[in-house]
Amino acid sequence: MPVSGLSPYDDANIFARILRGEIPSRTVYEDEWALAFHDINPQAPTHVLVIPKARFVSFADFSARASEAEIAGFTRAVGKVAQMLGLEEPGYRLLANMGQDGGQEVPHFHVHIFGGRPLARMIATR
Ligand code: 5GP
Hints:
This protein is α+β, with helices and mostly antiparallel strands and 126 residues long. It has helices at residues 14-19, 59-65, 68-84, 99-102; strands spanning 27-30, 34-38, 46-52, 93-95, 111-115. The chain has a 5-stranded antiparallel beta sheet with strand order 1-2-3-5-4, with helices on one face. The structure holds guanosine-5'-monophosphate. Residues 14, 23, 25, 37-41, 49, 97, 103-106 line the site of guanosine-5'-monophosphate (5GP).
């Protein structure tokens, strides 16, 4: 079920639990700013989620409230993960769903990295 990207942060959300180590995940990369792990329901041969370590509900929240160091650290982590996964030469797609119409289901800001094959059109038309 899509969620609002404007709600207060919910410490019980699934990615908060992954960050606290309460739920296992297949970690790809971790640093001071970000954690990257394989999506549990991959939509492409490579489908990795990158999340900031701090408590941000959505891209709207992150872009408004994160410090410049958090934004830089997170953005560099996304690029580093894609590079580590060998996706730079063939290419990849980034996606951040925000709120109800964006189809965001987990209320902790995350970026999807998709790759491993030529990807379909950018967005479904209906
Ligand atoms: P959203 O629709 O919020 O952008 O994407 C949430 C993503 O999180 C989905 O692609 C879903 O498969 C993934 N996901 C949901 N629960 C878990 C989980 O417990 N572990 C992992 N690794 N991924 C999850």
